[in-house]
Amino acid sequence: MSTNSIPVVRGNGSRNRGRKVTVVGAGSWGTTFAKILTDAGCDVTIWARRPEQAHEIQVARRNTQYLPGINLPKGLKATSDLATALRGARLVFLAVPSQTLRQNLLDIEPYLDPRSVLVSLVKGVERTTTMRMSEVIADTLDLPPERIGAISGPNIALEIAKEQPTGAVASCADFAVAQDIATAASAPYFRTYVSTDVIGTELGGVLKNLIALAIGIVDGVGYGENTKAAIITRGLAEMTEFSVASGADAATLSGLAGLGDLIATCQSPLSRNNTAGRLIGQGYSQEETREQMQQVAEGITSVPPVLELARERGIVMPIVEQVQMVLSGTMAPAHLGPHLATEDDVPRPEQPLDAPTPGRWRRLFDRLKGSSA
Ligand SMILES: NC(=O)C1=CN([C@@H]2O[C@H](COP(=O)(O)OP(=O)(O)OC[C@H]3O[C@@H](n4cnc5c(N)ncnc54)[C@H](O)[C@@H]3O)[C@@H](O)[C@H]2O)C=CC1
Ligand SMILES: O=C(CO)COP(=O)(O)O
């Protein structure tokens, strides 16, 4: 073998052989994730709400509404019957809209294996309770933390369905369970890292949607790269402050589930949050934007509960506040960029005064180096 040969990433095919897993939800992400799991060697069944969609996936190997042009793997099974979908599954991945998850959990409860682990792929918070999805799972099904996981990262579905390589973070309070989830979800084009920071992993996915809305809005207005760079940078600061105040590890927000996802969602024209923001920036109302969107843009529903939590925690989120004002029609989209701080804000340091000392940077660097292997 030549020393220059490119290493081939083989995924976990043999380790996952015969392993039954279920994906609940057959939209763009549920279907793409089912492909990842199948390509990782798992025995996958996807549950679709509509029988005709299950039939199309099972028979034609297509999901034309959500993943046009994508051929799905042969082994993937699909059904609209929950009992069939969940039979024998120890890992259950949830890919439904955040506002329906609670009801979906009640629907699947009778068919769940008592040892199964539930993994949220959802990037939203419940509007009525302000709960993260792992909290909704614990609240609805009364499961212990070691049976609840979350996966998040820079994961634009259509790119991954085309097998363009990327990574994600699988997190669970129990490290061994996080590793088990990551093993099931590691395909040749999808590298899954492991974390025990469920709060940071989930909040990264929730909060980047709000910043992507802001990016879409200023894009729609016609502002350029300086404005967007300022929003992304200050947006990450808002995301990190909010997440740390919620119990997350700051390092998670500088990883794939934070910065990584923020970059992907803010840059991609395929992002639904970015697209929704752009329509609003072009002058469409929130109602008209919802009508034009064929898919879930979680950010729009997450803005009010995130701001409610921020106020409770004493966190100021100028960008998210301004997204809310644009959405509610109390601020013109063109004012979002120039007002990166609230009007009564006094000039202040860019970094918090208790920013990490050189020693803390070194420890952070060592930690990142240790996790990059
Ligand atoms: N599409 C993407 O690139 C990614 C999406 N996500 C997250 O995954 C979650 C699901 O999003 P997508 O699959 O993209 O949305 P989507 O809009 O493509 O599909 C939503 C799916 O949910 C189903 N659905 C709607 N109402 C339902 C109900 N009451 N009960 C059960 N199912 C229902 C729809 O029929 C559809 O199959 C969201 O939280 C999203 O933020 C996460 C990573 C990537
Ligand atoms: O979460 C995503 C990418 O990681 C998908 O973003 P959108 O929901 O904005 O399409």
TrEMBL record:
A UniProt-annotated Pfam family: NAD_Gly3P_dh_C
Sequence ranges assigned to domain Glycerol-3-phosphate dehydrogenase NAD-dependent C-terminal in this UniProt record: 197-334
Residue segments, region Disordered: 336-373
Chief localization: cytoplasm
Residue spans of biased composition, Basic and acidic residues class: 363-373
Keyword terms: Cytoplasm, Lipid biosynthesis, Lipid metabolism, NAD, NADP, Nucleotide-binding, Oxidoreductase, Phospholipid biosynthesis, Phospholipid metabolism
Recorded superkingdom: Bacteria
Residue intervals of the Glycerol-3-phosphate dehydrogenase NAD-dependent N-terminal domain: 20-175
Pathway: Membrane lipid metabolism; glycerophospholipid metabolism
PROSITE patterns referenced in this protein's UniProt entry, alphabetically: NAD_G3PDH (PS00957)
Residues that hold NADPH according to the record: 28-29, 49-50, 66, 123, 157, 272, 296, 298
Binding-site list for sn-glycerol 3-phosphate: 123, 153, 208, 261, 271-273
EC number: 1.1.1.94
Reaction(s) catalysed (UniProt annotation): sn-glycerol 3-phosphate + NAD(+) = dihydroxyacetone phosphate + NADH + H(+); sn-glycerol 3-phosphate + NADP(+) = dihydroxyacetone phosphate + NADPH + H(+)
Purpose: Catalyzes the reduction of the glycolytic intermediate dihydroxyacetone phosphate (DHAP) to sn-glycerol 3-phosphate (G3P), the key precursor for phospholipid synthesis.
Family: Belongs to the NAD-dependent glycerol-3-phosphate dehydrogenase family.
Protein name: Glycerol-3-phosphate dehydrogenase [NAD(P)+]
Organism field: Leucobacter chromiireducens subsp. solipictus
